[in-house]
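Work Package 3 (structural annotation) set out to generate three-dimensional models for the target panel prioritized at the project kickoff. During this period the team completed the workflow that converts sequence records into discrete structure tokens, so that structures can be stored uniformly alongside our sequence database. As a representative example, we reproduce one entry of 281 residues exactly as it appears in the project archive.
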Amino acid sequence: MIRLIRKRQASAFPNDFRGERLKEKHLDLVARYYTSIESGKPIAFASGKWKSAKTKVRADSAKKCAYCEASTSVVAHGDVEHFRPKSLYWWLAYDFDNYLFSCQICNQIYKKDFFPVTPENQRLPAPVMPAARPVNLADLAALSEALAIDGSLSDDGVVRQRWAAEDANLVHPYLEDPTTIFDYEADDSNAEVWVRPGGHPKSARAYAAAESYLGLNREELRRDRYHHYSLLAIMKLAMLETEISQNTHIRILKEFERLADVRAPYAGMNRFFLRMWDIMG
């Protein structure tokens, strides 16, 4: 997992996540909330409401899953993932800052609606809503406007403050730096690379949450990571050869730069080992 950057200029957000169209989207959400209250059934969210976000969040993570960093270009389309599940945080269902791009395995097989926090009984408080659906259209519009937060007019610090009442165990890659939280361990005998907890105060619980609710150490990932790691290791050994030419040395360094780039699969792992070997800072 690597740190992702949320571009804040208006052009980085779909049109329906800004201005009046964003308020309209949340007017729909308020209506669905009250329909749920009146029927006693879960909120029936309209998945089409976040469909337009997919292109943007997919580009942010270079077409890779924001959690496991496996490419979704060939084997899967990927999902717009709600970091805080909409089943628990209904008011964030159409909040762009709550979105990231995820593979279906991380999202649908592992994470689902799980969202561990510390302490367990301290969750982000829901907005205070009138007990009954307002009959006045102006009151409904005011409710929707209060929920509709335009991410293009915000910044990461404001988002952190909005969610500061809750300490999530899972790492939000737009708001936290995973490279300070996770380490990696290569197991050459079994040809696997494991995600391990780092030295950050949050590392132990973030690691436990990532393993249980994202499956970051599932077998296919361990083995695929090793395939990429082994190329790194071979190139590192090649650099130690006394007869290597200056041109080859430069080419290897350029390849290391490419593998550390955000677009490379498992860039977080690659960066970890390149730092550990003192090849890159």
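The chain has two domains: 10-162, 178-276.
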